[in-house]
Amino acid sequence: MHDTIIRRSLLAGAAAMAAAAVLYGCATTRADDPQVATRATAMMKASFKERGQAKLDRLNQDETQRLCSEYAGRTLPPSVVDSIQKENLATVKYPADGKLVGDWKSGERIAQSGQGFQYSDDPSRPAGANCYACHQLAPQELSYGTIGPSLYHFGKLRGYTDETRRYAWAKIYNAEAFNACSNMPRFGHHGILTEQQIRDVVALLTDPASPVNQ
Amino acid sequence: MLPMKRRALAATAAIAAFAALGAAGIAGVALAQSTSDEIQKYRDALQDGNPAELWEARGEELWKTPRGPKKVSFASCDLGLGPGVVKGAYAQLPKYFDDAKRVMDLETRLVWCMVEQQGMTHADATKNAFGNGSQRKSDIEALVAYVTSQSRGIRMNVALDEPHVRDMYALGEKMFFFRGGSHDFACATCHGEDGKRIRLQDLPNLTKTEGAQKAYTTWPAYRVSQGELRTFQWRLNDCFRQQRFPELVFGSDASIALTAYLAGRANGAPYDGPAIKR
Question: Is the pTM of this model over 0.95?
């Protein structure tokens, strides 16, 4: 009941704001007006409720998310590309023991699993990376998506070198370090995958025995 | 009654065929494209026995039955074309309603009528917005099925020149490109490019007129995998779940803004729901 009252007063507030916006002629603003972005963000914060592990702070954008939203559908100015990539590259942490390659079989399970971070997921279970949702990897898996490029023969094409593996690690850790406003989640930076899980996915990509490289 | 039973049987048979097709798809080494062609063929065949008709029939009965503490039917409910007028109503929603001082989509308007005219509390009117796939059926899903079925063949015509609607459209467009959460996802992450798919599921490009028209005009839809008819509010709610966002509140301003954006982009296309989807 109390909830309903709060929600209603929020709605009334939003309606009053909208009415005010019309009075001041703001309703005719174009969508790339920063004021629209500010109002859209405020509207979203009043329109979502926390559920399970998905708290309202998920709507607080960091600078990368904010810039990528602002420039969506437009060409990023080179200075914005540089600042996003530089800032994100600085977040990449390599493992203290220097060991980059784990178990490709575990990596395959992580690549298959889409569990984790949804309010419907059990937070006590390890998250997956769901690589196959967007990428082709091992050729045996026919159910793969095409939002990202094919990663078949990732190691075979690039060489099984330390350089390839450090790149794979960093790309999984924070894809924005190499490709500003990439669609790919920042698995290390956001703590989606553990260090050991990243090792295992690096193995899936760069172990000569992995099905990805057959 | 008899034709209804026959339809339900046809639908059941069709669902079994879909399941068999799925099994064949996994067993065979069919290429992704031919799988999706097969699914399309199946969908076309299924249009004759869409179980959504069961929801439409239940919704029509609910629409005409006196309900709530005030024992009032939806005959006095104005969906934008006058009290009780259902024909073509969905094709012009979302719309600004002066009595509510708010832009509303169909679901929000139905709830408004339940509260203001039938005397229900807001909590009671919205507590069962989505059915659970088995015993707990949603009245709202049934009402939406009925109302939307009465716009079939009518061209989408959202009043984007009305200032309130235009404002919500602009806010919805911003939301579509809003990246956030643990995975940095926006609606545009999956729905901003042509010819992409997640796993084997084709993704409509909602930033293009053609993609938005095809997607919006085929919701609500009977979801074979869930055994429920799902509304557009449900579609948005479940997208945000997968986006790793918190829960989108049913009938919230954000849900209406995003609906206004997508419905507005579908303007000009004949409405073609309730449809049937995987």
Answer: no
